[in-house]
Amino acid sequence: MHTMTKQRVAIYARVSTDDKGQDPENQLAQLREWCMRSGNEIVAEYVEHESGRKGTKSRHAFRQLFEDANQRKFDLVLFWSLDRFSREGMRQTAAHLQRLDAAGVAFHSYTEEMLSTDNELVRDILIAVMASLAKQEVIKISERTRAGLERAKAKGKQLGRPSVTPAQIALMRRLKKENPRTSVREIARQAKVSPHTPCRSLVLVQIGPVAETV
Predict the structure, then answer these.
(1) Which residue of 19, 68, 122, 157 is 20 to 30 Å from 198, comparing CA positions?
(2) pLDDT tens for each residue of 139-193
(3) CA-CA distance, 158 to 69, in Å (whole number)?
(4) Dihedral angle sign, alpha carbons of residues 11, 102, 112, 85
(5) What's the Cα-to-Cα distance from 168 to each of 17, 133, 160, rounded to whole Å?
(6) Residues 127-140, buried b or exposed e (16+ Cβ, 10 A)?
(7) In what order do the strands lie in the sheet with 8-14?
(8) Who wins on pLDDT, 47 or 207?
(9) How far is CA 53 from CA 15, 56, 70, 207, 212, in A?
(10) If you write DSSP's letter for every residue of 80-119 in order, what string do you get?
(11) Contact 106, 100 (CB under 8 A)
């Protein structure tokens, strides 16, 4: 069921670079037809060729969509399916949809009629349900992480960054002192530590003696 009021629609279509042979025109054709049948006006089309797992920084059309939504350049965002809109997980996807809702913009999934807030009767319920699912996802991820750490601990695995011995620290400082132009990567290779470790240790050399721990 759709509202009878004519709405300004922004179409969002996405195909991933991994989706070989796919063409966004396949989505666009049916999304345009939906707008025509429902009597709505298409005011913008945002087409993306990026993975849906990337956030707004890497998805330029996606970022522009939200910038324009905040300026209320349209009333409704229409996309093919939720996974075409975002594949970042329920928590982040729900956050994106809540951003649209906060901007006063509805959304509609072409292939998932129940995932639509252009019907005001279900808008608040749907947003609440998705927020609840997102919260449950965070809890599950936390539980899996904790369980994984416990299993690793039980097997005697060392958690966190490996410790650096005083001998390694002394070697890194000596290498840098003997040749200031020696690269961090080379120092790390000779000291058999992570390249990030000499970055920190060598900076300390410049300010004088420090304790022989990291």
Answers:
(1) 157
(2) 666 767 777 667 767 776 665 656 677 787 888 888 888 888 888 788 888 888 7
(3) 47
(4) positive
(5) 44, 48, 18
(6) beebbeebeebeee
(7) 41-48, 8-14, 76-79, 106-109
(8) 47
(9) 12, 10, 22, 43, 43
(10) S-HHHH--S-HHHHHHHHHHHHHTT-EEEESS-TTSB-SS
(11) yes
Backbone φ and ψ for 45, nearest 5 degrees, come out as -130, 130
Q: Is 32 exposed, middle or buried (0-12, 13-18, 19+ CB in 10 A)?
A: middle
Structure tokens at 144: 């899996």
Nearest to 8 by CA among 44, 61, 33, 37: 44
Identity of the residue numbered 187: I
